[in-house]
Design brief:
- The chain has helices at about 1-20, 125-130, 140-145; strands at about 30-45, 50, 65-75, 75-85, 105-110, 115-120, 155-165, 165-175, 200-210, 215-225, 240-250, 255-265, 275-285, 290-300, 305-315, 320-335, 355-365.
- By secondary structure, the protein is mainly beta.
- It has one domain: Porin (Beta Barrel), CATH 2.40.160.
- Strands 1-3-4-5-6-7-8-9-10-11-12-13-14-15-16-17 form a 16-stranded antiparallel β-barrel.
- It starts with a helix and ends with a strand.
């Protein structure tokens, strides 16, 4: 009898120990599905119209992912994130068909010096713009004027980020910024054995946030390589952005402004230097209803090329996780520019110098 009790006790202990090893702690499954129907006018030189479902974004890009951590003691943790972007209109994977194209990294978090992580990660430029912004990756927003803004991620990246009170700082470095079939504006092969600088990238940011106001500055630079997008056909060429932003919040309002200076040494079509500036605001009409608006302007130095974008969005929350929204946007191109008002899907471009209006209504659910 004593032997049976001892054996049962040993088996129970072993099973408990095995369960602790086999079952990860702190793993969360999460996601957003956001889909809309939009209508665009002045499509192509025919001046026709197009009605479609966007494949990238309505109010937010659709995604699902897993993230988690393990307590290592003394305040240290391992952390990881695997996040996939998908097109809800077709079910296809975004970000060049990657399985986890939005994020895929593992790292070590410290209570004093921050988090060090490795894998496919956001540029610090993207994080600074996302945290300070209002419309963010909305279908009609700054991503229509610069397609890199909602796609600012690097493959093969070592990143560090830390937070101390209201201050946040971060930096990362990529050994090969885009190793898969890319979306427009980001493409460049991975690490190269013949050209050590090809397709490398780096970014950094510094932010200060309080309950009522905040400000941020960020820097992002990409090197070119064989077959790279945006004219960066050689590692001698760089594409650099500097971003400065500030915002304030009061009485249901949030008002912000930002400026991006871009210097692209690879471009030959227009000018190498451009400025993108925007002002935006959000107002909570009721706890369920909010209204957001933005005016953004893109100018190329010493060129007639430019574009002005106006967007307005209303969102009604049915619950904490489900919302309905409607967005209207209008872009006016000048000179040789032919940018679409919509960042929601490829195509739908107007003729050079032509204006375009878009209307979009949709639903969003977070889980």
């Amino acid at each position: 009898m004593k032997f049976s009790v001892f054996l049962l006790s040993g088996l129970t202990t072993a099973m408990a120990a095995h369960a602790q090893v086999a079952v990860p702690s702190g793993v969360q499954l999460y996601g957003i599905i956001d889909e809309a129907v939009e209508h665009l006018n002045h499509v192509a030189s025919t001046g026709g119209s197009l009605t479609r479902m966007p494949s990238i974004t309505g109010s937010l890009p659709s995604r699902w992912g897993m993230r988690g951590s393990e307590d290592l003691g003394d305040g240290y943790r391992t952390v990881f994130t695997l996040e996939a972007g998908f097109a809800p209109d077709t079910g296809a994977s975004n970000q060049g068909g990657r399985l986890f194209g939005r994020q895929a990294f593992v790292g070590l978090a410290s209570p004093t010096w921050g988090t060090l992580s490795f894998g496919r990660q956001y540029s610090m430029y993207f994080l600074a713009m996302l945290d300070a912004g209002i419309l963010g990756p909305n279908i009609y927003g700054t991503g229509s004027l610069d397609t890199y803004i909602p796609q600012a991620r690097f493959d093969n990246t070592v990143a560090w980020q830390g937070k101390w009170g209201p201050f946040t700082a971060g930096a990362n470095y990529s050994l090969g910024r885009d190793g898969a079939a890319p979306p427009a504006g980001t493409g460049c092969a991975g690490e190269s054995a013949t050209d050590a600088q090809a397709c490398r990238a780096a970014s950094a940011m510094l932010k200060y946030d309080t309950d009522s106001w905040g400000t941020a500055v960020a820097w992002d630079r990409q090197r070119g390589g064989a077959g790279a997008a945006a004219g960066l056909t050689s590692s001698r060429f760089t594409d650099q952005r500097i971003f400065v932003t500030a915002y304030t919040k009061f009485n249901g309002w949030k008002i912000g402004a930002g400026w991006v200076r871009r210097d692209n040494e690879g471009t030959t079509a227009i000018a190498k230097t451009s400025d993108l500036a925007y002002v935006e605001a959000s107002y909570a009409v009721t706890p369920q209803l909010s209204v957001d608006g933005q005016v953004a302007k893109l100018d190329y130095q010493n060129s007639t090329a430019g574009a002005t974008l106006l967007s307005l969005r209303g969102t009604y929350a049915l619950s904490k996780r489900t919302a309905l929204y409607g967005t209207v946007g209008r872009i006016h191109n000048s000179g040789p520019l032919a940018l679409s008002v919509s960042a929601g899907s490829a195509g739908g471009l107007p003729a050079a110098g032509m204006s375009q209006t878009g209307i979009s209504v949709g639903a969003r659910h977070a889980f």
